[in-house]
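Researcher: Quick test of sequence recovery. Tokens follow.
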């Protein structure tokens, strides 16, 4: 990606060991082509997830290693075109990406994405499936412009079946100089009166031998990671027949303040065996309403575009009760979505997990979705329109197969040429 001045950005890694609190803290730096620092991040991190083996599900927790690297795909962004991002790679094909965004007064890690590779046998021994898995989520990491984000306490980010726990984190984007700002925005987890650490505990690029940080207080272990939700088939009908068929597993990601005024993120699976299903059908709107255990109401609204003859998910509403929240009634809605869309009369299908961000505090993970709205014939799904994620996954085996076929052809041609030349020196008597 080109730098503002036209030079190609070369993100650099400056990694320092900053003591042994949990895993070793490390400093990651991204610079543009003019050697101007745009992102600095100093933290240690732990990852907790589960995976399937032939003997059942296994839980695993592993740390961000000291030799993690900043990838060249990290970027300082470009005004009105792209945002800054920090991409860290480690182990056998794992990457952690922090994507930043800003407004007039604040910046934030708008999206965090973690790609973990089940083919890494050191972390995932005896995994029944192989290859990379991707999860992502919005975060509560934010700070005022020209201030660093500082969080001594543990901060857990839940992304589907993965929990990332940050310890002793200092992060800053959109820097005005090549070092952390002296001013800071403290995280909610640290409370209203946190202990301020000396600035020497947060190394900058000008200090080749940073002082180790003060040990932070004991951190709680990551919260249990839920299993993938059950996939269930839902049906909405009226006197004119079926207007919605949907088969999917649903998982809710909810961020709120608990009674201790700390921001927490919890993950809830919708259990179809304990859920009442209802809905409605009109010529312009189809709704699916799910009343689940724990006073949870989840509504999906599907609309249509008559000019393009396509249907799509345009609305999600959530109303639930959180007993440990400062405000027990949690509500979130978005009526301007455009997801799960296909041509009228066809169905939309996606085997890959889809993540739909509804608001800053609420998102939905949808597993193995197959849906059709409005024109449903005979209670059966119509012709399938595959999602882009599945199409991209199909390109990999096709590309590998094409490459192997090309290699076989090259070897065959080389063999025939070699054989012809070997007989060229002989004459028939």
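Model:
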């Amino acid at each position: 990606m080109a730098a503002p001045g036209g030079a190609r950005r070369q993100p650099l890694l400056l990694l320092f060991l900053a003591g042994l609190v949990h895993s070793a803290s490390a400093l990651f730096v991204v610079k543009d082509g003019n050697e101007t620092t745009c992102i600095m991040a100093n933290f240690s991190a732990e990852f907790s997830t589960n995976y399937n083996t032939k003997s059942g599900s296994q839980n695993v927790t592993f740390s961000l290693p000291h030799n993690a690297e900043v990838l060249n795909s990290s970027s300082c962004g470009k005004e009105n075109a792209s945002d800054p991002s920090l991409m860290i790679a480690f182990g056998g094909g794992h990457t952690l990406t922090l994507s930043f965004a800003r407004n007039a007064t604040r910046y934030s890690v708008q999206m965090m994405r973690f790609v973990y590779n089940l083919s890494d046998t050191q972390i995932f021994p005896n995994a029944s499936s192989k290859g990379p898995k991707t999860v992502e989520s919005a975060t509560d990491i934010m700070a005022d412009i020209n201030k660093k984000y500082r969080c001594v306490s543990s901060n857990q980010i839940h992304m589907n079946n993965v929990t990332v726990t940050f310890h002793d984190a200092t992060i800053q984007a959109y820097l005005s100089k090549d070092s952390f700002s002296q001013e800071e925005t403290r995280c909610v987890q640290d409370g209203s009166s946190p202990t301020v650490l000396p600035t020497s505990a947060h190394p900058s690029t000008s200090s080749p031998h940073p002082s180790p940080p003060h040990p932070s207080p004991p951190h709680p272990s990551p919260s249990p990671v839920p299993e993938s939700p059950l996939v269930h088939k839902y049906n909405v009908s009226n006197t004119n027949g079926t207007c919605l068929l949907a088969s999917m597993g649903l998982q809710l990601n909810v961020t709120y303040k608990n009674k201790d005024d700390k921001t927490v993120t919890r993950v809830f699976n919708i259990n179809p065996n304990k859920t009442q299903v209802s809905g409605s059908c009109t010529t312009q709107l189809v709704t699916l309403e799910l009343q689940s255990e724990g006073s949870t109401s989840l509504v999906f609204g599907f609309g249509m575009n008559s000019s393009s003859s396509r249907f799509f998910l345009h609305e999600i509403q959530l109303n639930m009760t959180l007993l440990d929240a400062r405000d027990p009634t949690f509500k979130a809605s978005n009526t301007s979505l455009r997801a799960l869309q296909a041509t009228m009369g066809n169905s939309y299908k996606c085997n890959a997990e889809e993540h739909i961000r509804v608001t800053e505090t609420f998102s939905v993970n949808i597993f193995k979705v197959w849906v059709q709205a409005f024109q449903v014939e005979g209670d059966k799904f119509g012709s399938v329109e595959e999602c882009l994620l599945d199409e991209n996954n199909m390109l990999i085996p096709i590309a590998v197969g094409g490459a192997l076929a090309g290699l076989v052809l090259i070897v065959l041609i080389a063999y025939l040429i070699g054989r012809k030349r070997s007989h060229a020196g002989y004459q028939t008597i």
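The longest helix spans residues 388-422.
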